[in-house]
Amino acid sequence: MSVNAEPPVFSPRAERGKARAAFPLAPLAVGGVRLPSNVVCAPLAGYTDFAFRMLCYRFGAGLCYTEMVSAKGLLYNSEATKELLRRGENEPPQTAVQLFGGEADILRAACESEALAPFPVVDLNMGCPVPKVFKNGEGSALLADLPRAEKIVSACVKSGKTVTVKFRVGIGRGNYVAAEFAKMCEGAGAAAIAVHGRTREEYYAGEPHFEQIAAAKNAVSVPVFANGGIFSVEDAAAMVQKTGADGVMLARAAMYCPHLFAEFYGAGKEWDVCAAVKEQAAAMLPAYGERRTAVHMRKMAAFYLRGMRGAGQVRRELFACETLQELENVLARFFCGNAPSAAEGVPAD
Ligand SMILES: Cc1cc2nc3c(=O)[nH]c(=O)nc-3n(C[C@H](O)[C@H](O)[C@H](O)COP(=O)(O)O)c2cc1C
Fold first, then answer.
1. CATH code for 12-263?
2. Per CATH, is 273-344 categorized as 1.10.1200?
3. How far, in Å, are 97, 98, 156, 158, 166 from residue 163 at the CA level?
4. Quick check: 155 pLDDT over 90?
């Protein structure tokens, strides 16, 4: 196994002078928490674990969120929940924990729990469209119940945490609540909001409703992160131009290519996928073991190779990998053609 921590693949500080003019890259304060940049990585269930967040931070993300965490699960001390709260060694302090739930007292108790002590920022999920969550009156269901949503935000603010809210622009088309909901969040004490410009019914498809994000931005004075459909620096610049948002939140784009954060600082599109995969795997390995790390990283590697010439073919090889060494060999063959190939009769592990 030769998965060792690699030297940094990118240094935001070194690249800062080359920031692109098109996107207004700048530090941003969320309550008392200072973010080094206004380009942040969204919460992504199944992906934004500590190892992935470390990569995003190193490429220049201003803030990362945990995967969404059930407030009830946290209070029941569930093992799965504890795992979601794992932080990386030397992880920047600002990482926000995202909670979901529907009851103000439970969410407040979660904010005050010992488990959340390492997280200064608590983000409240008021946008999750998944039926199981929605039917429980949680996530995007709160868009249709402003009084309950307000109770939740103000209860969590009373815990002393810096509270932010991530929400969608409405439940369905023609029934937009973005401005009203933004105002409610600010009034209840939220320090920032992130607005996903799609409705619950739209899930992740289609153009975001830019005018709804703009309406939310115009309704409040706390920082607003615009989210939805941003897949390039140019998309981010257009999003800010159309909405007036203070920052942007990358979601699927970061999952497919965490190096996109570096592009905001002027880095080119080329990046060292092998080094990044090794680094992420090295961070995961002690926590999750070989098999789980390999299975997760073959999926991530397939994402990271998207759009590269020949990537389609190598995906099949990636998904056959059972160990990190096999994964490393496939990547080395893809990029340099210099690793032993199974076809040559040499075992790939
Ligand atoms: C795989 C996946 C997992 C997600 N998990 C969460 C989550 O845990 N919490 C949350 O608020 N949003 C979650 N989202 C929504 C994203 O944060 C984001 O709002 C959405 O993908 C829109 O942004 P995009 O168009 O740039 O991808 C998830 C989205 C995807 C695709």
1. 3.20.20.70
2. yes
3. 10, 10, 7, 10, 10
4. yes
